[in-house]
Amino acid sequence: MSFCSFFGGEVFQNHFEPGVYACAKCGYELFSSRSKYAHSSPWPAFTETIHADSVAKRPEHNRPGALKVSCGKCGNGLGHEFLNDGPKPGQSRFIFSSSLKFVPKGKETSTSQGH
Asked: Which residue range or ranges hold the MsrB domain (predicted)?
């Protein structure tokens, strides 16, 4: 189930190279490719963040079981966390669209690491 509009062209849906997914606005590290998994939605799905403060969350009052997620550093809107909808029982699913940029393993910079 997804609550976002999809206009096509999602570049990270089937992208599984090793690396880091960072905020497209400020470059702060958000997700490792190790936490990414294949999902039926057109957006990339992750099970956990890199840092405890990678993202900030707030309830979506009109969407039970969903949290609005933003970058923990700059506040850029990223997408949603769907509670108890991950690949394993009890895991959540984070989904995002064009708010992410991918940094291949070995190409990390101080910007992508949030420094």
From this structure: 1-105
Residue 59's beta-bridge partner residues? 67
56-60, 70-74, 78-82, 111-115: range with highest mean pLDDT: 70-74
Residue 67, both tokens: 């949290």
- 2-60 pLDDT, tens digit each: 333 344 455 555 566 788 889 989 999 998 888 887 777 667 778 888 999 999 999 98
Position 27, amino acid:
G
Strand blocks (E) in the chain? 19-23, 29-32, 36-37, 45-46, 55-59, 66-71, 77-82, 93-96, 100-104
**CATH number for the domain running over 20-103:** 2.170.150.20
Q: How would you label 29-51 residue by residue, b for 16+ Cβ within 10 Å and e otherwise?
A: bbbbbeebeebebbbbbbbebbe
Write the CA distances from 55 to 40, 45, 47, 94, 107, integer angstroms: 23, 15, 13, 10, 22
